[in-house]
Amino acid sequence: MTRTYGRGESAFHALRGVDLAVKRGESLAIVGKSGSGKSTLMHLLALLDRPTSGQVIVEGTDAATLRARDLNALRNSTFGFVFQQFFLAAGQSVFENVSLPLVIAGAPAKERRRRTMAALDALGIADKAANRATDLSGGQKQRVVIARALVGEPSVIFADEPTGNLDSATGAQVEEILFGLQRERGITLVVVTHDRELADRCGRAVAIADGLISTDAATAAAALTEVSR
Ligand code: ADP
Ligand code: MG
Questions:
Q1: Residue whose CA is closest, atom 24 of ligand 1?
Q2: Which has the higher per-residue pLDDT, 215 or 54?
């Protein structure tokens, strides 16, 4: 598939022909230099954006054939997001932030409470439920983001630089949590990262260079050298 931003003279070909299959239960790292197209690819895979050409097929269904409503329902019920740009709502409590996907999905209050507390428990932050999300440390905030990603019981978690803003000890804890979910709950993990160790821990890594998956060993090695910096 391809993704071009803009058109005519200002058109920018962010993805120029990428063919990628994500397998159920795997952990997949997407690595590459800044601007290579990693986030664009992840947004397409996560049904947050549509390709300019080509298809995104989820369990045999071409996403382009779904009505907006069904697409949203599929995304909400199947995917969890750990993205830096999906900020926590500043004035709201940890509980409110984590339960938001269930509010959107229209889950009854009792079920929202049960599932939100279960997700907070899984991340070891149940005692922070009533705190304002903005009053937490960086590592705690990232746990809140992961709890929110988990609350809908997704089968796939998409994480874009999940450890990017964290110190190495906190980043290691967040990594443990993500790989624990993959191992213990069979959740598929798709992670964009600049972190060499995180990429190495994934079952598989694909390197993106200038909008293409680089199969060339030298280019792939250069992308991995880049991520280790
Ligand atoms: P990465 O995540 O690998 O850093 P991105 O996928 O975010 O890269 O972006 C790939 C390229 O596409 C970059 O050159 C970026 O400037 C460009 N790009 C991304 N989003 C847009 C957009 N909405 N409009 C125009 N260009 C964009
Ligand atoms: Mg990016």
A1: 5
A2: 54
